[in-house]
Write a structure and sequence with these properties.
By secondary structure, the chain is mainly alpha-helical. It has helices at about 25-35, 50-55, 65-80, 85-95, 100-115, 120-125, 130-145, 145-205, 210-245, 250-260, 265-285, 290-300, 305-320, 325-330, 335-345, 350-405, and strands at about 5-10, 15-20, 40-45.
Length: about 400
């Protein structure tokens, strides 16, 4: 559909310039007049071919920050529940956000709603801002006439998700920083410090002890081939990501390995279960049909094995089974989770039970991460002491021998 740029004066006297999609300029004029806008100019919007092509590439898509989405959802829920018209609410929020990309998204949604498009259909045009889960819940709220309630539940869900992410990030920050420092220190030692000592020893004609000679040889090897190593590493990462995105069997094997991996596998599984149960609880409570809810949850699982299990459970539910039975057969979900879901189904309080499971596993994830970081930190410090300390000792060994010869 072609785009048109218009300039018009609002009923309050404000001059606005926006770009909208329409069949013809006449349609744009009619829509503006319905809004009681005084039309100043309407002309066809022409985007350069290169810019249009680049904007379609995923790498050039401006993603919306998750924190902005959380704030937007909470504020929109508050405005709608307070009786503020949706278009007016979006107009208010548009002026509050600093992110240009998010402001453009809100403006586009507001313009589409003014043109008669539903809010869920307007959000579908911005997949880099709104997930299938988000759009599905908003659509359910529109159909059921409870958009304010759904937006409130969606806000709670996003806030809980953000809190879990923040806990994981804050807990892992220190080990990551120490690891980067350790690796950086080792690289600097091998590529800068060791070569200078090696040149000094060569000038003195000193015979190097075995540890020192090994370190000098390793330094020369790394300096010579470091660029090749970097290129090979980058190529491996690119190929791995490509295979993971395009090859379902490969992605399934990787995610299965991650879930069963020692130490980290437990944290990954608990995080996946917490996400699954909280997402499903939010969808069920918002009135989304169970089959649609399971499909949406599968897409947002973040793990191919979990996704496969949920989709298989969805097919079983379609054939008349309950949710708990196929989840139990999969062997992926712990017995406690399956039992609590079964109780929730029998008592008609599935959403409540799923929320309790999610809260429990959120705390389990926090405890597991704290334990993991408590174990990783001393290991990193030991690594730093052994590697860097070993290099320092190896560099000074010839000095000790030279000093002993001179004093002798």
């Amino acid at each position: 559909m072609p785009k048109y740029t218009y300039r018009a004066r609002t009923p309050t006297g404000k001059i606005v310039t926006e770009t909208v999609e329409a069949v013809s300029p006449r349609e744009v004029v009619d829509k503006l007049r319905n809004l009681k806008y005084a039309v100043i100019e309407v002309k066809e919007f022409k985007e350069s071919t290169i810019k249009s092509f680049l904007n379609k590439l995923p790498i050039f898509k401006k993603k919306v920050k998750f924190s902005d989405l959380v704030i937007f959802s909470r504020q929109l829920a508050t405005l709608v529940s307070s009786g503020v018209p949706l278009v007016q609410g979006l107009s208010i929020l548009e002026d509050q956000f600093e992110s240009p990309s998010f402001k453009d998204v809100i403006k586009s949604i507001r313009t589409d709603i003014e043109s008669g498009v539903s809010i869920s259909d307007a959000m579908k045009k911005h997949p880099y801002a709104f997930s299938d889960l988000y759009i599905g819940m908003v659509h359910a709220g529109e159909v059921g006439g409870i958009l304010d309630q759904v937006l409130d539940r969606l806000s709670l869900y996003l806030e809980a998700t953000q809190e879990l992410k923040s806990k994981i990030k804050s807990a892992m920050m220190y080990p990551i920083i120490v690891s980067v420092v350790a690796v950086g220190a080792a690289i600097v030692m091998l590529t800068v410090v060791v070569p200078r000592f090696a040149a000094l020893f060569a000038e003195m004609g000193a015979k190097l002890p075995a540890p020192t000679q090994m370190l000098v040889n390793l330094s020369a090897f790394i300096k010579k081939w470091i660029l090749l190593f970097v290129l090979i590493g980058a190529a491996i990462v690119i190929v791995f990501r490509r295979l993971y995105k395009t090859n379902v069997k490969f992605a399934l094997k990787v995610d299965t390995f991650l879930l069963n991996a020692p130490i980290f596998g437990d944290v990954i599984k608990k995080t996946a279960i917490a996400k699954f149960t909280r997402t499903l609880a939010t969808l069920v409570r918002s009135g989304v049909p169970i089959l649609q809810a399971m499909e949406t949850v599968a897409k947002t699982a973040g793990n191919k094995l979990i996704e496969k299990t949920i989709l298989e459970a969805r097919e079983s539910i379609r054939e008349g089974e309950r949710i708990a039975e196929p989840l139990k057969k999969s062997g992926v979900f712990p017995p406690m989770v399956v039992q609590m879901i079964a109780v929730g189904e029998e008592t008609g309080a599935l959403d409540t039970m799923l929320t309790k499971i999610a809260d429990f596993y959120d705390s389990e994830v926090s405890a597991a991460i704290e334990g993991l970081t408590g174990m990783i930190e001393p290991l990193i410090i030991v690594f730093l002491a052994v590697v860097v300390g070993g290099m320092v000792v190896a560099m000074y060994l010839p000095m000790f021998e030279i000093t002993s010869k001179i004093s002798g």
